[in-house]
Request: fold
Amino acid sequence: MIPSVLPTYNRAPLSFVSGEGSWLVEQDGRRFLDFGAGIAVNALGHAHPDLVQALTDQAGKLWHVSNLYQIEPQQRLADMLVDKTFADTVFFTNSGTESCELAVKMARKYRHDRGEDRPVILTFEGSFHGRSSAGIAAAGSEKMTRGFGPCLPGFQSLPWGDHEALKSAAAQPDVGAILIEPVQGEGGIRPLPDQCLEGLRELCDEHGLLLILDEVQCGMGRTGKLFAHEWAGVNPDIMMVAKGIGGGFPLGAVLATEKAAQAMTAGSHGSTYGGNPLACAVGCKVMEIVADDAFLSQVNRKAGQLRQGLEGVVASHPDVFEAVRGAGLMLGLKCKAANTDVVQACYDEEILTVPAADNVVRLLPPLTVTDADISEAVNRLDAAASGMTVHG
Reply:
């Protein structure tokens, strides 16, 4: 008999009842060190007092009115994002998947209103852009699309790192945009080198393409800058944001230049809950904290400490791990053992990690993780590896 909760997740036998900072408490009382952060969602950890206060203050005033009216926290958050980024305008969603839907619509509406037949969006092998019809079509992998056809047309997936294939595809007359994650998350923590992102921007300018960045997982301070593309010193035309922007409260956004967004006029898109007062009140507080230069400086310092510790774990367990990769506090352990076995061994040591493609284990701690938490995580990862029996 089918369970009351649709069984689309292979859930671990863990149920958490409370959390504080980088720690979660299981219903049996065990304390787990959370280095998954809800898959990079809990950017400021669990029960951050400033976020709790922002949410409860807003909850006592106004929850929902719909986008038929002006929403003060929404306007405030939009102004903050425009002030701190390349963007001229923002549309708020509830998730990264919804952000992907709008980014695709925006790029195609831009072409339509210019009288251009250029609907194709170039994407890349290993990408993940959510599980909507547009998201799975964009990623193009059989794992996500099998059984859900016919897929939404207008996407062309290219091999990761094949510059010649990219140059050839970008020159096709029906191509209008390129969509890419600056750091692939689900794809196995694969950072796009800065020079490649610079090259993408140049290629888009050469052929008149829109550059769409998916910073759902790698944005909001995760790599040590507010958004990952800032490391390369280039700007997109459209950017998808979610996860960390709400610090655990459902919130997403699409940021865009005036040029890219000009075709999105009244009635062209909407969202019942997108930009609601509760989500945006929390988002404003997250932005106040994360966009601060001193905070980001600490993220970079902690990232260095964590990476150094992980390099030591890899060196001590060459039968379990191959390498450390990633950027900031978005790191991955490339495994020789099965990554799912490593995740299970970590459960046994009461530390939460997240599996990814390419046999990688993701480490995505809260950006507020303490030095002591990092040291403890390294010790627990070392113990997890020590306790594994690797089968050749």
